[in-house]
Design brief:
562 residues, alpha/beta, Alpha-D-Glucose-1,6-Bisphosphate, Chain A, domain 3, seven-stranded antiparallel β-sheet, 17 helices, 31% helix, globular, binds 1,6-di-O-phosphono-alpha-D-glucopyranose
Length: 562
Amino acid sequence: MEKSLTYPPPFKSNDNRIMDIKINTVATTPFDDQRPGTSGLRKATTTFQKPHYLENFVQSIFNSLPTLDGICLVVGGDGRFYNREAIQTIIRMAAANGIGELIIGQGGILSTPAASHLIRKNGTDGGIILSASHNPGGPDGDFGIKFNTPNGGPAAEKITEAIYAASKTISKYRIATADPIDLDSIGETQLGSLKIRVIDAVSDYAELMQTLFDFDLIRDYLAGRRMIFDAMHAVTGPYGKRIFEEMLGCPEGTVWNGEPLPDFGGGHPDPNLAHAKALVKEMFADDGPFFGAASDGDGDRNMVLGHQFFVTPSDSLAVLAANATVAPGYRDGIAGIARSMPTSAAADRVAAELGVDCYETPTGWKFFGNLLDAGKITLCGEESFGTGSDHVREKDGLWAVLFWLNLLAAKKQSVADIMLDHWQTYGRNAYARHDYEEVDSDAAKSLMTNLTAKLAGLPGSTLDGRTVAYADDFSYTDPVDGSVSEHQGLRIGFEDGSRIVFRLSGTGTRGATLRVYLEQFTSNASDYSADAHELLKPIATIAHQLAGIEYYTGRSEPSVIT
Ligand code: G16
């Protein structure tokens, strides 16, 4: 069993420890299920614990790199069950494969955006991030692993496909026999020719945030006001405590569930209305705080709440884009915006007003990488509680929270008033996602096949009084490298600006998860105070009937609505 991590961790120097190793070559056979999904390889923890499973995938990553000789990688994870064991395995395999250096977060912990920053800051050859993000952890939960490239972002599809190809032909891996490395003590250890540098997981990231946001303004604004940051017993606990309670002067206790636990305290570390229940309850209480936020397992997602107000992730992207110049890091304006296809078009309206481009990409942060690297966009976001910018190449939960605090401090308005002002200027894209989790995989595929066959006949037809403007299977051509990604979700757009999107999740680990994304545009001021779900009811009914959701899945209601 893994032990719980403490914060701050004890400081012990292990400088200059030199450990001998013996290199072994182990014969193995391929597993047929190691194709990375939307974000790396995610499976039940028990799958990763099978003999050779993790080793095969790690060796497949190594085998797909141009060289291993002397390279430097960042390694860290969200602290979930099996994190420490996996890191020890990666260390021993790195030593046996001729890798030069590993930079590892203390305790084996690194938030995903912090890992992205370390890769970029140190100019490393990439990094390995251990996380199944918002999926529950523990022996009966999930585990995950992904490779990030030297730009700090998740590997593009051509690399994940190369890793998958390598996993299908693997016949051996290299691993050293050596004592476990002390991950809790900051310092350096030499394992054969491999240098292992254990570093403070929080400092570099906190410094980066100070370059982007006005900490003095935020600190003054927060004095005497109550906010909550719910770290959900996941990786952002130490980051939240350092930034909110130590640097921004919030009282102790501002960070809820701040101790990272291997099983996230038994919770589901997904910052949304369904899984951050206690936070939501507190925020909707009569005497609730002015601001609340939560982040997920690996710290890249965020949920933003005002007093008695929930900000949808799609709206959050639009509001931050419209007001970007309040933050010092974005004072010169933004080059462009990107959103994943299922994300609402609220950001498109802001981009049009600002006179910058807005790109529509497939689901998956990896699709923003080229646009960010080419300087075509500054901000990007997804409906799945992800927002970020060109400061790293991952979405960034705490960054979004700090951006909102900077905005609130600059505008001196409530979250609800900022949203209302925004809708009065741009109109409102009411939005919700309905998830049907753990449905039978074959049934889900049949639903999608059947719906795909209907698409060509839909444009021009009327569904429950609404005329279909377009219906297609979304395909994306990357404007930077020309690569094409097909079958990225089925879109049905109506002439009145409403839209339904159907996709199968690429991150679920049990059966299939059908996602139905609903959007309704309105510029009728009386709709601004209406409940989004009421506004969306008519198109939810159309979606149900058109796709035959109950017929195929046996479900009359979604399992989760966000
Ligand atoms: C990952 C990806 C996101 C994606 C999300 C949901 O996030 O990085 O781009 O939106 O999964 O994907 P799907 O709809 O395929 O399940 P995370 O936070 O899980 O790494």
